Amino acid sequence: MQCALPSFDEMLTKYSARLLRARTEVLQINVTKTCNQECSHCYVDAGPYRTETMDLNTLSACLKFLRSSNVGRVEITGGAPELNPHFEELIKSIFSIKKKIVVRSNLTVLLEPGKAHLPDLYRRYKVELYCSLPCYTKENVDKQRGEGVFEKSIRALHLLNDAGYGKDPSLVLNLVYNPGGAFLPPPTQELEADYREVLRREHGIVLDHVITLTNMPINRFDRWLRTEGLYEHYMSLLYENFNPATLQGLMCKYYLNVGWDGRLYDCDFNQMLGLEIHDPQTGKPLTIDSVDDKSLEGIKIRTGAHCYGCTAGRGSSCRGEIVNKKGT
To answer: Which among 34, 32, 83, 35 has a CA at the least distance from the CA of 53?
Structure first.
């Protein structure tokens, strides 16, 4: 059953707002849907059974785009991006063209066969890490991500700390929280203090930052909401907490997301819903080998009910909350 809420475009009209693409500042590359985990909140529907993986030709097209653009930041995501067979070559190539590299990791992949060298690789190429750890307690993490995941995550964090992450200012370790149910994240500042204290005291782990993400009603989390009879409740929660102050900082304005097959999207969430960026003249889906960082400016951003997830409360983006408690 669909929740009878105003469309997101109607909400934008209410606030006399338009969402148009600005100059691309971040290229986000989803290199695979393969993952060694199957988390209950996963909007990608990633898992060991997924085979979609970006090939070398498409990765080369991404690099060609980067070489000719002013984009300064590249985020590599998945699935578990480390499971793409060309992952390491991609890291080295991005580093060679002097772009900031970010990898979004699930941590436990570092314990997979043949991956023990990755912390040193990350250190060598100054990769900033966003690592999923949706709570600092074993019970909550294992409930959301699978039995034994918390223990493996702590082992992986020790490997990263040993490589200098969380200690060397040039090696940034961010931990990513998302709620374990149909509710909004708490304020980041308060949560970060708890993470620091508990992980240091109980496990000897140090970190740089904690960021919070709102669960998106897409794919696996959407199915969980419907199975539990919570879909309408959750969508109403997002709608009722809509915050117009988040609109200015929405990542879809300056992010460009590339799917495993080279198609382009305003964000990773739109990718999972098949909401491609279309050529305004022809109406055809755009691909990474057909654009530059300037040609996308001014294109209308595609929206849907899931956009209420990015604009609820303090807002949510791939870098965490958008506004602080004062709304700035």
So the answer is: 32
Q: Rounded to 10 degrees, what is the CA torsion of 90, 54, 71, 296?
A: 170
The residues, any chain, with a CB within 8 Å of residue 81's CB and separated by 6 or more, are 31, 32, 87, 103, 104, 105
Q: How far apart are CA 257 and CA 233, in angstroms?
A: 30
The SS3 assignment for 131 reads strand
Do the beta carbons of residue 131 and residue 158 sit within 8 Å?
no
Q: Which CATH number fits domain 8-310: 1.10.579.10, 3.40.50.300, 1.10.510.10, 3.20.20.70?
A: 3.20.20.70
Q: How far is CA 131 from CA 87, 179, 206, 256, 267, in A?
A: 17, 15, 13, 21, 19
- Strand order, beta sheet including 173-177: 209-212, 173-177, 128-132, 100-105, 73-77, 26-30, 255-258, 264-265
Strands (E), 124-170: 128-132
**Tens of pLDDT, residue by residue, the chain (328 residues):** 455 789 999 999 999 999 999 999 999 999 999 999 999 889 999 999 999 999 999 999 999 999 999 999 999 999 999 999 999 999 999 999 999 999 999 999 999 999 999 999 999 999 999 999 999 999 999 999 999 999 999 999 999 999 999 999 999 999 999 999 999 999 999 899 999 999 999 999 999 999 999 999 999 999 999 999 999 999 999 999 999 999 999 999 999 999 999 999 999 999 999 999 999 999 999 999 999 888 899 999 999 999 999 999 999 999 999 997 433 3
* In the chain, domain spans: 8-310
User: CB–CB of 95/125 below 8 Å?
Assistant: yes
